[in-house]
Amino acid sequence: MAALFVLASFISLAAASSAFENFVVQESRQSAPDAFAHLGPAAGDSMINLRIALPSQNVSGLEADLLDVSDPKSANYGNHLSKDEANAFLAPTTHAVSAVQGWLASKGLVGKISGAGNWISVAVNTSTANEMLAAEYQTFRHIASGRTYQRTLSYSLPSELANVVDIIHPTVVFDPPATGRPVLSAPRSRPRATPPASCAITITPFLACIQSLYNIPTTKSSFSNIAVSDLKTFLQLFRPDISSSTSFTVQTLDGGSNPQGTGEAGIEANLDIQYTVGLATGVPVVFVSVGENNQDGDLDGFLDLINFLNSETSVPGVLTVSYGFAGENAISNALAMQFCNACMALTARGTTIIFASGDAQACTTFIPAFPAGCPFITVVGSVGGVSPETGSSFSSGGFSNFFPSPSYQTASVQSFLQAQGSKNAGLFNPLGRAFPDVAAQGEDIEIVVGGATGLVAGTSASAPIFASVIALINSQRIAEGKAPLGFLNPLLYANPGMFNDITTGSNPGCGTSGFSARVGWDAVTGLGTPNFVTFVAALT
Ligand SMILES: *[C@@H]1O[C@H](CO)[C@@H](O)[C@H](O)[C@H]1NC(C)=O
Ligand SMILES: *[C@@H]1O[C@H](CO)[C@@H](O)[C@H](O)[C@H]1NC(C)=O
C-alpha cells in the first residue's frame, strides 16, 4: 500500500513539473474567409472572453428522452425534464472540469461554469490568450459590415487537456454578423388584398388581419409592467382593445441594453416586441437583450443566451429569435453541435425554441442557414398575401450539411423530394435536416419605430407571429393544468392537417429558381401557416 502511494505521488509530481507544456494543435485554418480583411496583430491588452466547451457525457441519451417526451403518441408526452435531469446528460465528467480548472488556476484564473456545466468561460487579454493557447490573435474586419473581430488561425492546448476540451470559441471560427435585421420602408399606400375583410384596409387593422387569418383569439387578460413608448403607440394603433400600457420585461446579457433606439437593433426589437405583445394577448413577454458591441461576434450572443437559460431554474414556454447566420459553413461543425445540443437541453425542459429561417440563400451550391439546421428548434419561413398566402421569395429554406434528417420529418421531406424530381439535384444535401418547419406572414408587416409607422419584411417578422400562436396555446394548456408544448416538431409533422398548406411561391437564389411551395411540406413554407383552431383541435 505504502509503496503504491509513494509511486503515485512521484508520478503526480513528475506530471506537475512538466504540466501544461506540451502543446497539441486543436483547430487551425489556412486563412481567414474572403469576407474578412486582416488588420494586424490584436492589441495585447484587448480583452477576449474565451468560452471553453467540454465534451458532454450522454448527448444520445438526452435526444432519446427528448423524443420520448415530445412524441404525442408516447405515454410520457409533455413530461418535460427538470433542469437537473436535462443538464446531467450534457454535463462533462468531473475529471474534465477539474483538469480545465486546474489549468486555469495555474495561470491565476478562475473559470466561470455555465450552460449544463459543460461550458467554462474566462475573460483574458489577448496577450494571455496567445500564451495559454499558443495562438496568435489578430484583428480582422468583416468587410461588408465594418465590424472588427479578434480571431486566431490556430490554437493549441497542453496535451493533458486535448481530450477534456471539445472546442474553444472565439478562436478559428469567423462567424459573420448575424442576419435577419429587417429594413424599415415607408408605410403602405396600396390596399391589402381581400379577403378576409380585416386584411383589406390599409395599416390600422393589420394585427386584426393576422388574428383573423390564423384564427388567433383576442381574449384579454390583464397584467402590467414597464411601459415603452413605441409599444404604446403600436398598441394604440393596432390593438385599441388592449391596454397600451401593457409591456414586457427586459433581461440583459453580455452588456445588452434596453432596445429603444431607432437604429437596426431598435427596428428588430420593436418588431419582435410588437408582434409578441400585440398578438399573444396577456402572455408575459420577456425581451432578452444580448449585447453585440464586442469583438467576440454574434454567435457568442446566441451561445450565451442558451447557456444562460439552461442554467436558470425556470425556463420560458417559448423563445423566439429572429437573427440567424446566412451560411452554416461559416460555423464549425463542432461549434454547431455544441450550440444545437444546448438547444436540445433547453427544449427538453419544455421551452419551444423558434428561429427565423433567414432571408437569403447563400451560393455556389446552396449553403443552408444556421442554426436553422439544428433539428431541435422550430424554424419559421415567410409568406405574403392573404388569398392565397404565398411563399415569400426571400423565405430561406433548404437542407443542412451538418445535421442529418431527423426521423420526425423524413417521410414528409421524402414526399417533397419525390414530387420535385431532379430539380436542383447536386446543389443541396437531400439527406440533411430540412427547413423551414412552418411559415407565417412576413411581408408588409407594419411596425411603429420612433413614433412613426413603417413596413418591414422578413422571416424575422414571421418568427414572433408563429411564437405568439404557440404562447397562446401554451396559456390555454396551462389554464387546463397541462404542460406547455415544449419541443414541437414531432407533433407538427404528425399533424400536418393543423396547418394552412401553402402551395404557391418559391425562393429563387444562386441563379436558380430555388425550391417551390407544394402540397405538403416544402422547402419554402414548411408545413404551412398556423391555424389556432385546428391546432388546438389536433391536440385534443
Ligand atoms: C494581460 O493580462 C495579464 C494578467 O492580468 C497582465 O499581467 C498583462 O500585463 C496584460 N498584458 C497586457 C499587454 O495588457
Ligand atoms: C444515457 O442516457 C440513456 C437514456 O436516459 C440511458 O439509458 C443510458 O444508460 C445513458 N448512458 C450513459 C453512458 O450514461
TrEMBL record:
CDD domains found in the cross-reference section: Peptidases_S53, Pro-peptidase_S53
Cellular localisation: Secreted, Extracellular space
Catalytic reactions of this protein: Release of an N-terminal tripeptide from a polypeptide
Residue positions binding Ca(2+): 501-502, 520, 522
GO CC aspect terms: extracellular region
Cofactors: Ca(2+)
Coiled coil: none
Signal peptide residues on this chain, from the entry's feature table: 1-16
UniProt superkingdom: Eukaryota
Active-site residues, as the UniProt record annotates them: 268 (charge relay system), 272 (charge relay system), 460 (charge relay system)
Pfam families assigned to the protein according to its UniProt record, in alphabetical order: Peptidase_S8 (PF00082), Pro-kuma_activ (PF09286)
GO terms for MF: metal ion binding; serine-type endopeptidase activity; tripeptidyl-peptidase activity
Major localization class: secreted
InterPro entries, per database record: Peptidase_S8/S53_dom (IPR000209), Peptidase_S8/S53_dom_sf (IPR036852), S53_propep (IPR015366), Sedolisin_dom (IPR030400), Tripeptidyl-peptidase_I (IPR050819)
Annotated keywords: Calcium, Hydrolase, Metal-binding, Protease, Serine protease, Signal, Zymogen
Annotated cofactor note: Binds 1 Ca(2+) ion per subunit.
Metal-binding among keywords: yes
GO biological processes: proteolysis
Enzyme Commission number(s): 3.4.14.10
Domain Peptidase S53: 174-540
Keyword Metal-binding: yes
PANTHER family, per database record: PROTEASE S8 TRIPEPTIDYL PEPTIDASE I CLN2, TRIPEPTIDYL-PEPTIDASE 1
Biological function: Secreted tripeptidyl-peptidase which degrades proteins at acidic pHs and is involved in virulence.
Protein name: tripeptidyl-peptidase II
